[in-house]
Amino acid sequence: MSLFSPVASREQAREQRFSSYWTENLNDVFTDVAPYYDGANRVASLGLWDWFLSRFMSVVNVQPGERVLDVCAGTNAIGIALLQRESSLEVHAMDRSAAMQEVGQKRARARGLHIDSVIGDVHELPFPDNHFDVVTLQFASRHLRVKRVFEEIHRVLKPGGRFCHCDMLRPGNPVIEKLYYGYLRTCLVFTGVLFRSGPAALNCKRYFIDALEMFYTAEELSGVLREVGYRDVVVKSLLGGMIGIHRATKTE
Ligand SMILES: C[S@@+](CC[C@H](N)C(=O)[O-])C[C@H]1O[C@@H](n2cnc3c(N)ncnc32)[C@H](O)[C@@H]1O
To answer: How many domains does the chain have?
Structure first.
């Protein structure tokens, strides 16, 4: 990667601004929110949470018996949805937050489903090269060194394997962008009170908007995927670009 590419400069700027937050604060935030994560997101999304998931699931194409990795799996929404669709899948989940995975494992077990869990930082995936048919990553890239994680995912995917990604993105339209951040600011205060967030989560309100403001639009994220070496990049934007869904393939 040339240091002068727009992706390199953006990643460097994000790193400078947020790396201490990513390393020191974020895990405490997810330990705090784990018990109410799913409920808070249902409220914050005005009931659209399950619709986001179903839109994302519509681009995740799996075949019986395939091996899938869900990166930053949180409470295992993706693994559960995939196993409910195709029970013969081998599903692995990785997340740095033991608290989020504990909730996720309980949710999977309650449905009689098995998901292998690894606790660790996804900037280094503890899996061999060319190992997974599909890797998924939902609602976490804003908190990551995106290019580095996309490269790691590329490494562990089999040739022809698919990477499916969904996240809140920076809308390309400045009017939508302003409305979006205004809504999120109000929402973070409201859910903080409603779910009695602890100090770690309450102190992240500013970071949450800042991270989004410095993140990629759907089109820019397609560029990051291509720069890493993925091909056949398909993108769907929801709600004027507030949410972006991508699918990309590792070259055979
Ligand atoms: C907003 S949650 C998303 C969870 C889940 N993917 C979903 O769609 O509901 C973000 C998750 O990313 C995890 N995470 C953030 N940074 C991470 C890192 N560097 N390594 C592993 N997990 C990380 C957090 O612990 C948290 O569970």
So the answer is: 1
Q: Is the pTM of this model over 0.70?
A: yes
**CA dihedral of 106, 247, 235, 154, whole degrees rounded to 10:** 110
Q: Which of 52, 53, 72 to mutate to test the pocket of ligand 1 (most atoms within 8 A of CB)?
A: 72
Q: Determine the 3-state secondary structure of 95 from DSSP.
A: strand
Domain assignment present for 183: no
User: Is 192 inside any structural domain?
Assistant: no
Q: Residues 219-246: pLDDT tens digits?
A: 999 999 999 999 999 999 999 999 999 9
Unique residue bearing structure tokens 């393939």:
249
Say how many Å lie between the CA of residue 176 and the centre of ligand 1. 26
b (16+ CB within 10 A) / e for 23-39: eeebbbbbbbbbebbbe
Kindly state whether residue 194 falls inside one of the protein's structural domains.
Answer: no
Cβ–ligand 1 distance for 7 under 6 Å, the answer: no
Quick check: is 160 in a domain?
yes
The answer, yes or no, to whether any atom of ligand 1 lies below 6 A from the CB of 97, is yes
Q: Is the pLDDT of residue 120 over 90?
A: yes
CATH code, 11: 3.40.50.150
Q: Is the C-beta atom of 26 inside 6 A of ligand 1? A: yes
Q: Ligand 1, atom 10: nearest CA belongs to which residue?
A: 140
Mean pLDDT for 105-125 is 98
What spacing in Å lies between the alpha carbon of 200 and ligand 1's midpoint?
Answer: 15
